[in-house]
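Hey, resending since the last one bounced:
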Amino acid sequence: MSKLAGKVALVTGASKGIGAGIAKALAAEGAAVVVNYASSRDGADAVVAQIESAGGRAVAVKGDVSSAADAKAIVDAAVSRFGRLDVLVNNSGVYEFAPLEAITEEHFHRQFNVNVLGLLLVTQAAAAHLGEGASIINIGSVVSRIVPPASAVYTATKSAVNGITGVLARELGPRKIRVNAVNPGIVETEGTHTAGFIGSEFESGAVAQTPLGRIGQPKDIASIVAFLASDDSYWLTGEELYAAGGMR
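The structure tokens again:
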């Protein structure tokens, strides 16, 4: 039997990249999946179509996670469409690198609003619907461990994700709701291609620091998330898992 049969999962920022890979992996394990997107309707529809063509169930739901009203609407849509909510993957995130002298209020708030406030708002809305055995998976980043130059704000947001994970694991543990974080290394996605990371010195430098000798693919992260979403990880909560091929 599929590990997530009968469960409903919400994946934020799932129209492309790591989020899309996670949505498809959860569906492959039997979950009905809500594919959240902020702007790429075509991307979200494509993910839904791929899930449905493989025999799964999915729906695309638009919403800006950094808006309390939208966060609640996304969760409400999941419950309205599928009748329950068992798994929340807080994957929505933005990144922008800048050295200290180039940091602005806009640079700071754009990343914190999505990466940190958005995670809190969606989790707050979802918590009202999550029951015993539910799983929350927060997507952080290896930057919280390797702290690269020119990433002060982005690294701060992802360090906050790890901190929040520990706090919420304690808060929600009495309800038997698990909260864990997955911190990917550099992963080949539309975003890392657009940012110019793929094929650059940045990529070759990352590979040189990675014992397993390559950068990640969305499926490398998705399989770990699927494990954390399933009952196989019932004794894990408050954990920060680094999915980065050993990069330190």
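The radius of gyration is 17 Å.

Sorry for the duplicate.
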